[in-house]
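S1.2 Input.
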Amino acid sequence: MPRLSTSLILALLFALVGCGGRSVQTAPTTAPAAESAPSERSHRTLACAATEGLRVGLPRPFLYEVRHGQNTSLLFGTIHAGVAAQRALGDRCLEAVKRARILLTELPLEVDQRLIVSAMMLPEGQSLRALVGDARFEQIAARIDGAPPELLDRFAPWAAVVAASVEEMKQIAAARGGDRDAVMDQEIQTLATRFGVPNDGLETPEAQLALFTEAPLAALLRMADRSFSEQGYAEGVELFEAYLAGDEGALHEMSDMDYLEDIAPEFLEAILPARNRAWMPRLTDELQKGGVFVAVGAGHLFGEDGLLELLAKAGFEIRRLTFD
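S1.3 Output.
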């Protein structure tokens, strides 16, 4: 089983609360007309634009060509906070989003936020402070600027840990040249919607929520303690810098979650490997047809149970795209 750094798991949690799409309640009742897609859109092949003069993004984005026969698609590993899609992919590769036959993401763009809010709150009569202790409660409160203590006390432990960690990740991004307000996954989804590209989720919000609402409290408390430590902060910095550098090895080697294996092996299995395997039937079906842009958290790509390895075993040719 691949082991994951605390920062990487918390980044995945942020995919749910921060990148799970916009609320269906705020979506317009009549969708705006989609912009015209580029005339060269192909339903079988997909690649970054070769047009001279178009801006490129990061020199080594986590972007991979996935080939099945003559049909090609693109698989992109995102970071859920701190880096804008424009910076990562540039105009050349964002053109591929506009040309795609379909965009596949972890969740669809429009998710009923009431479902998420309901899961984030404790049942009546329960208290976050009582569950996590005074010291952890104060650490969480210090990281969530402006949250009234009485509201914070209603948060479920998983939601409180995520909210505090997201704020810290945003601060890391801002301090290291990132964009604290960027939500890369949602930016890609919004672009696809503008150009009439259908966007499907690889899993349901209910399934993603269950990963965390059913996580053992002991595991969440250990994650909180690690995240709020100096080591946890250093891991967040390492994750962010590895993403900007396009360092596959650094992401793959974030392997210090041994401290959870004794109490939450099922959680570690569920957070990445089980989800990756559950996605494979849909991914295989669409990628065989070609013309797909897949955007999921970069943590899903690596290791024995990572998507790159699973797709290679399924017969797809994988090639990383770089722009050094």
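S1.4 Remarks. The chain has one domain: 6-22+43-49+60-320.
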